[in-house]
Amino acid sequence: MEERFMDDRVKKLEDRLIEELQEVERLVVLTGAGMSTESGLPDFRSPDGLWSRYRPEELASVDALLERPLLFYEFYRTRLEMLDRVKPNAGHRALAELEKQGRLQWIVTQNVDGLHTAAGSRNVAELHGSLREARCHDCGRPHPVEVLKKPVNDIASLPRCRCGGLIRPAIVLFGELLPEKALYQAKTALENCEALLVIGTSLQVYPAASLPQIALEQGARLWILNLTPTPYDGVAEIVVRSKAAEVLARLFE
After folding, report:
1. Which residue from 227, 250, 208 is spatially nearest to 112, judged by alpha carbons?
2. CA quadruple 160, 44, 128, 117: dihedral positive or negative?
3. CATH hierarchy code of domain 17-40+88-128+178-253
4. Which among 152, 114, 150, 107 is positioned nearest to 131, based on CA atoms?
5. What is the DSSP pairing of strand 129-136 with strand 167-171?
6. CATH architecture, domain defined by 42-85+130-171
7. Is the pLDDT of residue 5 over 50?
8. pLDDT digits (tens, 9 = 90+) for 145-158
9. pLDDT at 50 over 60
10. Cα dist. 41→46, 48, 79, 189, 240 in Å?
11. In what order do the strands lie in the sheet with 27-31?
12. Which of 59, 67, 110, 146, by CA, is between 20 and 30 Å from 16?
Protein backbone atom coordinates (compact mmCIF):
# COMPACT_ATOMS: atom_id res chain seq x y z
CA MET A 1 0.00 0.00 0.00
CA GLU A 2 2.80 2.41 0.91
CA GLU A 3 4.63 1.63 -2.35
CA ARG A 4 1.48 2.34 -4.36
CA PHE A 5 1.04 5.62 -2.50
CA MET A 6 4.60 6.64 -3.36
CA ASP A 7 4.10 5.70 -7.02
CA ASP A 8 0.92 7.80 -7.17
CA ARG A 9 2.69 10.73 -5.53
CA VAL A 10 5.58 10.59 -8.00
CA LYS A 11 3.13 10.35 -10.92
CA LYS A 12 1.29 13.44 -9.70
CA LEU A 13 4.55 15.37 -9.41
CA GLU A 14 5.56 14.28 -12.91
CA ASP A 15 2.19 15.43 -14.26
CA ARG A 16 2.53 18.77 -12.51
CA LEU A 17 6.02 19.33 -13.92
CA ILE A 18 4.87 18.49 -17.45
CA GLU A 19 1.97 20.92 -17.14
CA GLU A 20 4.32 23.69 -16.01
CA LEU A 21 6.74 22.98 -18.88
CA GLN A 22 3.88 23.33 -21.35
CA GLU A 23 3.12 26.81 -20.00
CA VAL A 24 6.51 28.32 -19.11
CA GLU A 25 7.84 31.06 -21.39
CA ARG A 26 11.40 31.80 -20.20
CA LEU A 27 12.89 28.52 -19.06
CA VAL A 28 16.54 27.71 -18.34
CA VAL A 29 17.69 24.12 -17.82
CA LEU A 30 20.75 23.02 -15.86
CA THR A 31 21.85 19.46 -16.66
CA GLY A 32 24.34 17.02 -15.19
CA ALA A 33 25.49 13.44 -15.72
CA GLY A 34 22.03 11.98 -15.06
CA MET A 35 20.89 13.51 -18.34
CA SER A 36 23.42 11.41 -20.25
CA THR A 37 23.34 8.10 -18.41
CA GLU A 38 20.03 7.33 -20.10
CA SER A 39 21.88 7.50 -23.43
CA GLY A 40 24.20 4.77 -22.19
CA LEU A 41 27.06 6.91 -20.92
CA PRO A 42 28.34 6.02 -17.43
CA ASP A 43 28.61 8.86 -14.98
CA PHE A 44 31.60 9.46 -12.74
CA ARG A 45 30.29 9.63 -9.21
CA SER A 46 27.83 6.74 -8.98
CA PRO A 47 29.01 3.41 -7.48
CA ASP A 48 29.27 2.03 -11.03
CA GLY A 49 30.70 5.20 -12.58
CA LEU A 50 34.14 5.65 -14.10
CA TRP A 51 35.44 7.34 -10.95
CA SER A 52 34.85 4.10 -9.00
CA ARG A 53 37.84 2.67 -10.90
CA TYR A 54 39.94 5.84 -11.24
CA ARG A 55 40.33 8.89 -9.03
CA PRO A 56 39.44 12.07 -11.00
CA GLU A 57 42.66 13.85 -10.14
CA GLU A 58 44.66 10.90 -11.44
CA LEU A 59 43.34 11.11 -14.99
CA ALA A 60 41.32 14.26 -15.66
CA SER A 61 43.96 16.76 -14.66
CA VAL A 62 46.70 18.88 -16.15
CA ASP A 63 49.20 16.93 -14.03
CA ALA A 64 48.10 13.69 -15.69
CA LEU A 65 48.39 15.25 -19.16
CA LEU A 66 51.94 16.40 -18.53
CA GLU A 67 53.27 13.72 -16.18
CA ARG A 68 51.29 10.57 -17.10
CA PRO A 69 50.34 11.28 -20.73
CA LEU A 70 50.03 7.63 -21.85
CA LEU A 71 47.39 6.94 -19.20
CA PHE A 72 45.71 10.30 -19.89
CA TYR A 73 45.31 9.67 -23.62
CA GLU A 74 44.18 6.07 -23.18
CA PHE A 75 41.48 7.21 -20.77
CA TYR A 76 40.16 9.88 -23.12
CA ARG A 77 40.41 7.66 -26.18
CA THR A 78 38.13 5.22 -24.34
CA ARG A 79 35.69 8.02 -23.55
CA LEU A 80 35.65 9.17 -27.17
CA GLU A 81 34.91 5.61 -28.30
CA MET A 82 31.93 5.62 -25.92
CA LEU A 83 30.67 8.86 -27.46
CA ASP A 84 30.75 7.34 -30.93
CA ARG A 85 28.33 4.64 -29.77
CA VAL A 86 25.67 6.82 -28.15
CA LYS A 87 22.95 9.16 -29.37
CA PRO A 88 20.75 11.81 -27.75
CA ASN A 89 17.90 10.32 -25.77
CA ALA A 90 14.26 11.37 -25.62
CA GLY A 91 15.07 13.91 -22.92
CA HIS A 92 17.65 15.67 -25.08
CA ARG A 93 15.22 15.74 -27.99
CA ALA A 94 12.40 17.08 -25.82
CA LEU A 95 14.54 19.99 -24.65
CA ALA A 96 15.51 20.77 -28.23
CA GLU A 97 11.83 20.88 -29.13
CA LEU A 98 11.09 23.22 -26.21
CA GLU A 99 13.77 25.55 -27.56
CA LYS A 100 12.18 25.48 -31.03
CA GLN A 101 8.87 26.44 -29.45
CA GLY A 102 10.56 29.45 -27.86
CA ARG A 103 9.97 28.28 -24.28
CA LEU A 104 13.50 27.15 -23.44
CA GLN A 105 16.00 30.02 -23.58
CA TRP A 106 19.24 28.29 -22.56
CA ILE A 107 20.65 24.93 -21.53
CA VAL A 108 23.49 25.18 -19.04
CA THR A 109 25.27 21.84 -18.85
CA GLN A 110 28.03 20.28 -16.80
CA ASN A 111 28.27 17.50 -19.38
CA VAL A 112 31.02 17.35 -22.00
CA ASP A 113 29.40 14.82 -24.34
CA GLY A 114 27.80 17.32 -26.76
CA LEU A 115 24.50 15.41 -26.80
CA HIS A 116 22.39 18.54 -26.34
CA THR A 117 23.86 20.05 -29.49
CA ALA A 118 23.56 16.73 -31.33
CA ALA A 119 19.84 16.72 -30.46
CA GLY A 120 19.38 20.12 -32.10
CA SER A 121 19.67 22.56 -29.20
CA ARG A 122 21.45 25.77 -30.16
CA ASN A 123 21.72 27.82 -26.99
CA VAL A 124 23.96 25.56 -24.91
CA ALA A 125 26.47 26.86 -22.36
CA GLU A 126 29.00 24.04 -21.83
CA LEU A 127 30.50 24.85 -18.45
CA HIS A 128 33.11 22.12 -18.66
CA GLY A 129 33.83 22.32 -22.40
CA SER A 130 33.27 19.59 -24.98
CA LEU A 131 34.84 16.21 -25.63
CA ARG A 132 33.87 16.60 -29.27
CA GLU A 133 36.52 19.29 -29.73
CA ALA A 134 40.31 19.34 -29.30
CA ARG A 135 42.86 22.11 -28.84
CA CYS A 136 46.54 22.67 -28.20
CA HIS A 137 47.37 22.83 -24.50
CA ASP A 138 49.99 25.53 -25.12
CA CYS A 139 48.70 27.86 -27.85
CA GLY A 140 44.99 26.98 -27.85
CA ARG A 141 44.86 26.25 -31.58
CA PRO A 142 41.80 24.06 -32.44
CA HIS A 143 42.39 20.60 -33.92
CA PRO A 144 40.13 17.82 -35.25
CA VAL A 145 39.09 15.59 -32.38
CA GLU A 146 39.94 12.54 -34.51
CA VAL A 147 43.62 12.99 -33.61
CA LEU A 148 42.73 11.94 -30.06
CA LYS A 149 41.17 8.68 -31.21
CA LYS A 150 44.46 7.23 -32.38
CA PRO A 151 46.30 4.86 -29.98
CA VAL A 152 49.21 6.42 -28.10
CA ASN A 153 51.84 3.74 -27.45
CA ASP A 154 54.84 5.82 -26.45
CA ILE A 155 56.02 9.37 -25.92
CA ALA A 156 56.94 9.73 -29.59
CA SER A 157 53.33 9.10 -30.66
CA LEU A 158 51.76 11.79 -28.46
CA PRO A 159 49.55 14.12 -30.55
CA ARG A 160 51.27 17.46 -30.93
CA CYS A 161 50.42 20.86 -32.42
CA ARG A 162 52.71 22.62 -34.90
CA CYS A 163 53.93 24.72 -31.96
CA GLY A 164 55.02 21.57 -30.16
CA GLY A 165 52.30 21.63 -27.52
CA LEU A 166 50.20 18.60 -26.69
CA ILE A 167 46.78 18.32 -28.34
CA ARG A 168 44.14 17.62 -25.71
CA PRO A 169 40.35 17.46 -25.32
CA ALA A 170 38.76 20.92 -25.16
CA ILE A 171 37.36 20.28 -21.71
CA VAL A 172 38.00 21.72 -18.27
CA LEU A 173 40.49 19.54 -16.42
CA PHE A 174 40.84 19.46 -12.65
CA GLY A 175 42.75 22.52 -11.56
CA GLU A 176 41.53 24.69 -14.46
CA LEU A 177 39.01 27.53 -14.39
CA LEU A 178 35.65 27.32 -16.15
CA PRO A 179 35.52 29.06 -19.56
CA GLU A 180 34.55 32.70 -19.07
CA LYS A 181 32.19 32.78 -22.05
CA ALA A 182 30.12 29.79 -20.92
CA LEU A 183 29.99 31.05 -17.34
CA TYR A 184 28.84 34.49 -18.51
CA GLN A 185 26.15 32.91 -20.72
CA ALA A 186 24.94 30.82 -17.79
CA LYS A 187 24.77 33.67 -15.30
CA THR A 188 23.05 36.00 -17.78
CA ALA A 189 20.45 33.35 -18.61
CA LEU A 190 19.75 32.63 -14.94
CA GLU A 191 19.35 36.31 -14.13
CA ASN A 192 16.61 36.61 -16.76
CA CYS A 193 14.67 33.36 -16.51
CA GLU A 194 11.15 32.70 -15.30
CA ALA A 195 11.98 29.19 -14.11
CA LEU A 196 15.03 26.94 -13.72
CA LEU A 197 14.72 23.19 -14.25
CA VAL A 198 17.61 21.18 -12.78
CA ILE A 199 18.02 17.76 -14.41
CA GLY A 200 20.29 14.88 -13.51
CA THR A 201 22.67 16.59 -11.12
CA SER A 202 22.96 16.35 -7.35
CA LEU A 203 24.42 19.89 -7.30
CA GLN A 204 27.56 18.87 -5.43
CA VAL A 205 30.24 20.31 -7.74
CA TYR A 206 31.02 24.03 -7.58
CA PRO A 207 30.69 26.56 -9.07
CA ALA A 208 27.83 24.92 -11.01
CA ALA A 209 26.19 23.91 -7.72
CA SER A 210 25.73 27.58 -6.81
CA LEU A 211 23.96 28.53 -10.04
CA PRO A 212 20.39 27.81 -8.81
CA GLN A 213 20.88 30.49 -6.15
CA ILE A 214 21.27 33.10 -8.90
CA ALA A 215 17.87 32.17 -10.33
CA LEU A 216 16.22 32.13 -6.90
CA GLU A 217 17.58 35.58 -6.06
CA GLN A 218 15.90 36.92 -9.21
CA GLY A 219 12.56 35.46 -8.16
CA ALA A 220 12.60 32.53 -10.57
CA ARG A 221 10.81 29.29 -9.83
CA LEU A 222 12.94 26.18 -9.20
CA TRP A 223 12.06 22.68 -10.38
CA ILE A 224 14.24 19.61 -9.86
CA LEU A 225 14.15 16.36 -11.82
CA ASN A 226 16.76 14.04 -10.30
CA LEU A 227 16.91 10.53 -8.88
CA THR A 228 18.84 11.55 -5.75
CA PRO A 229 18.48 14.41 -3.24
CA THR A 230 20.06 17.83 -3.81
CA PRO A 231 20.83 20.70 -1.40
CA TYR A 232 18.04 22.72 -3.05
CA ASP A 233 15.18 20.25 -2.58
CA GLY A 234 13.85 22.18 0.39
CA VAL A 235 13.39 25.42 -1.56
CA ALA A 236 12.31 23.92 -4.91
CA GLU A 237 8.69 24.28 -5.97
CA ILE A 238 8.64 20.82 -7.59
CA VAL A 239 10.98 17.88 -6.89
CA VAL A 240 10.57 14.76 -9.02
CA ARG A 241 12.52 11.56 -8.33
CA SER A 242 12.30 10.03 -11.81
CA LYS A 243 14.42 9.39 -14.89
CA ALA A 244 14.73 12.51 -17.00
CA ALA A 245 14.26 10.96 -20.42
CA GLU A 246 11.12 9.09 -19.39
CA VAL A 247 9.47 12.19 -17.93
CA LEU A 248 10.47 14.67 -20.63
CA ALA A 249 9.45 12.27 -23.42
CA ARG A 250 5.85 12.60 -22.20
CA LEU A 251 5.87 16.27 -23.21
CA PHE A 252 5.50 15.38 -26.89
CA GLU A 253 3.81 11.99 -26.86
Report:
1. 208
2. positive
3. 3.40.50.1220
4. 114
5. antiparallel
6. 2-Layer Sandwich (3.30)
7. no
8. 999 999 999 999 99
9. no
10. 12, 11, 9, 27, 22
11. 124-126, 104-109, 27-31, 195-199, 221-225, 238-240
12. 110
Could you list the active site residues? 128
| pLDDT tens per residue across span 115-133 | 999 999 999 999 999 999 9
Q: What are the CA-CA distances from residue 86 to residues 30, 115, 125, 154 (Å)?
A: 21, 9, 21, 29
Give the C-alpha separation, 206 to 218, whole Å.
Answer: 20
Angstrom distance (rounded) from CA 31 to CA 28: 10
**Contact in structure between 226 and 202 (CB atoms under 8 Å):** yes
pTM score of the predicted model? 0.90
List the domain boundaries for the chain.
17-40+88-128+178-253, 42-85+130-171
Equal CATH topology for 17-40+88-128+178-253 and 42-85+130-171: no
User: Alpha carbon 132 to chain centroid distance?
Assistant: 13
CB atoms within 10 A of CB 81: 10
Helix %, strand %, coil % of the chain (to 5): 45, 20, 40
192 forms bridges with which residues in the sheet?
none
Cα–Cα distance, 22 to 250 (Å, whole number):
11
Q: What pLDDT is recorded for position 1?
A: 44
Q: Which of 44, 33, 61 is nearest to 176 (CA)?
A: 61
